[in-house]
Design a protein that fits this description.
mainly alpha, single chain, 154 residues, elongated
Length: 154
C-alpha cells in the first residue's frame, strides 16, 4: 500500500513537471488582452489597418533604394564636375608655364630694376645725408607709385 501511494505521488510530481515543461516550451495559448480600438482615418472614416512588419520593411527598403539612386546620381554629377575642373586646371597650368617661358626675361629685369630703385632711393636705405637724402626721398615718392601701378597691371 505504501508503495502504491509513493508511486502515485511520484506520478503526480512527474505529471506536474511535464505540464510545467510544456508550458515553457510551447507558446502561450492564453487569450491576449484586448488591444486599443483601431485608428480611424480622418479622410475616409474607415479603420486604418495596422501595417505588417513585412509592409514596413518593404517601405523602408524602397526608401533606401530611392536614396541610393539619388546619391548615385549626385556621385556621377560630382565626378563629371571633378573631371571638368581637372581639365581646366591642366589648361591653366600649361598656360601659366607658357607665360613664364615668354615672360621670364622681362620679369627678372623688372624685379632687378624695382630692387635697384628701392635700395637707391627708399628713405630707409639711403646712406647719404643732407640735400642729397631729401632729393632721393622725393624721387622715390614720385617713382614708387608708378612702380606699384605697373605691378597691379601684371
Amino acid at each position: 500500500m505504501q508503495l502504491n501511494i509513493a508511486l502515485l505521488l511520484f506520478a503526480i510530481v512527474l505529471f506536474g513537471l511535464l505540464i510545467w515543461l510544456m508550458a515553457q516550451i510551447l507558446p502561450s495559448t492564453e487569450e491576449k488582452p484586448e488591444s486599443a480600438p483601431p485608428k480611424i482615418s480622418p479622410r475616409s472614416n474607415k479603420p486604418i489597418r495596422p501595417r505588417s512588419v513585412e509592409e514596413q520593411l518593404r517601405d523602408e527598403i524602397a526608401a533606401v533604394h530611392n536614396k541610393l539612386a539619388f546619391l548615385q546620381g549626385e556621385h556621377d554629377r560630382w565626378k563629371e564636375r571633378a573631371k571638368a575642373l581637372a581639365t581646366r586646371v591642366c589648361e591653366l597650368e600649361s598656360a601659366h608655364a607658357e607665360s613664364i617661358k615668354t615672360d621670364s626675361g622681362d620679369r627678372s629685369q623688372y624685379r632687378r630694376l624695382r630692387s635697384l630703385i628701392a635700395t637707391e632711393f627708399h628713405p630707409d636705405h639711403i646712406k647719404v645725408e643732407g640735400i642729397e637724402k631729401i632729393v632721393r626721398t622725393e624721387i622715390f615718392k614720385a617713382i614708387w607709385p608708378k612702380v606699384q601701378d605697373i605691378e597691379k597691371t601684371h
